[in-house]
Amino acid sequence: MEIVEKRGAPLHSCDGARHRAQGDPPRQPRFQSLLYGGPERAPLSQDLYNFEKGPDRFLYPPVTGILLVPFAFSSEWHVHQFVWHGLLGFFVFLLARGSWPALFAMMIVSRYLAINLGYGQINVAVLALVVGAHLALERRSRWAAPLWALASFVKVYPLAQGMEFLLRRRWRELGLAALAAALLLALPALVWGWDQSWRLHGDFLRALEGKGMPLHSHNQSISALLLRIFTKETFVLHAYGWTTWGFVELPPAAVRAAALLAGALATAWGWLRAHRRRLPLDYAAATAFSLLFLSHIVWKDYFLFLFLPLRQLIAEKPVRWKWWVGAYAAMVTLSAPDLLTHKITVWLDAWSIHFWAAIILWTAWLRIPPRTNNP
Fold first, then answer.
1. What pLDDT score was predicted for residue 50?
2. What is the pLDDT of residue 44?
3. pLDDT grade, residue 371 (50/70/90)?
4. Are the C-beta atoms of residues 161 and 308 closer than 8 Å to each other?
5. Average pLDDT, the chain
6. What is the mean pLDDT of residues 147-153?
7. Are 233 and 257 in contact (CB under 8 A)?
8. 328-365 b/e with 16+ CB inside 10 Å = b?
9. For the ranges 90-104, 126-140, 205-219, 250-264, which has the lowest average pLDDT?
C-alpha cells in the first residue's frame, strides 16, 4: 500500500484542519451547511445550489429546500439546531416507545444515532417516514402513500420500499403515491415558476454528478469496498491521506457491475424471504437491508436503519438469536474510536466493518423461522 498526496481534491472532513492551518476563520459546523444553508437560500432560488454561498453543498432536491424553510426562520444557526434536534428527538421517542425490543434496538444503534444528531442529518426523519408508511400499509391506511412519497423525495433511497407496495398488491396506494409524488414535484414550480423549477432540478442533478463516487474509507457500500480492493483507484484513508490498495487490478466498470449484482441478489433474497414469512416488521427490515445493499454511497449514519431488523430479532423468543445480536453489537461497539485509536478505526472503516456487521444481522434475520399462524 502506498500513501500519496493528492492536491486539488478537497475533503470535507479535513476542511476544518486545513482552514485552521492556513489561518482562515473556522468554518461553521457542517450541520448548518447541510440542513440550514440550503433552506436559508431557498427563498432566493438562484442561490440554492450556489456552493459559494455556503461552506458545503446542498445535495437535496429543490422540494426539500422548500419543506425545510420553516426551520431556517432565524439567522442564528444555534436556534435552528435546537429546533431541528428537538424534532429528531421526538421521532426517536416515537420509534423507541413501542416496546422493550424497540428501546433496546435504538440503544444498540445509538452510535449511528449520535452521528445523525451530531451532523444534523435527516436520516432519523426518513426512518420515521419509512416506519410510518410500513405501519400504514399494515393498517390499510391511505397515509402510506404520502409518507412513502415524501421519504423518497427527501432521500432517494426509500424508493426501495416500493417493493412492499408491490408484494402486498396495494395498487390503490401506489396510485396515490404517484399522485403525491406529482404534487411534490410540482411544488417548486408553484413557488418559483416552471422555468426556474426546471433549472433547479438540473442544478440538483449536476450537484449529485459532481459528488461522484467517493471511495474514501467512510463509504461502507459494497461498491466502494470492492473498488478499494480490486482497482488501482486512489481513495482517502482518513487520518493517513490519499492511498491506493489495488490488490488485484480489474476494470472499475466490471467491479461496479459485480457490486450491483451482489447487492441486487442479496436484496431479492431478503424480499423473497420476507414475502414468504410475512412476520411483523419483515417488509420494513427488507427495506432497511435494500438501502444498504443497493446504494453506492453508504455513510455510517445510514446504518441507523438497522434499527428495524434489530427490533425484530430482539423480539424473537429463542435465545440463539440474541447471540447474533450480541455479535453485531460487539463489532459496532468495539470498533469505536473511543476504545481503539482513530487510526485503527479508520483501517476498520476502510474494510467496511459496519457493512460486515450488517451482514451478521442479515444472516440472522434470514434464519428466523416462519410462524404457522401467519396469514
1. 65
2. 54
3. confident
4. no
5. 81
6. 94
7. no
8. bbebbeebeeeeeeeeebbbbbbebbbbebbbbbbebb
9. 205-219
Q: Cα angle at 363 between 103 and 131, to 5 degrees?
A: 40
- Are 3 and 241 in contact by the 8 Å Cβ rule? The answer is yes
Mean pLDDT of 34-62: 61
**Can you give the residue ranges of every domain in the chain?**
28-212, 215-375
Question: pTM value?
Answer: 0.84
What is the pLDDT at residue 155?
86
Query: How, if at all, do strands 235-237 and 241-244 pair?
Result: antiparallel
Contact 87, 120 (CB under 8 A): no
- Can you tell me the distance from the alpha carbon of 224 to that of 214, in angstroms, rounded to the nearest whole number? 8
Residue 32, C-alpha cell as written in the block: 448548518
End-to-end CA distance of the chain: 54
Size of the chain, expressed as the number of residues it contains: 375
Quote the CA–CA distance of 258 and 145 in Å, as a whole number: 33
| Cell reading at 52 | 459559494
Does the pLDDT of residue 294 top 90, yes or no? yes
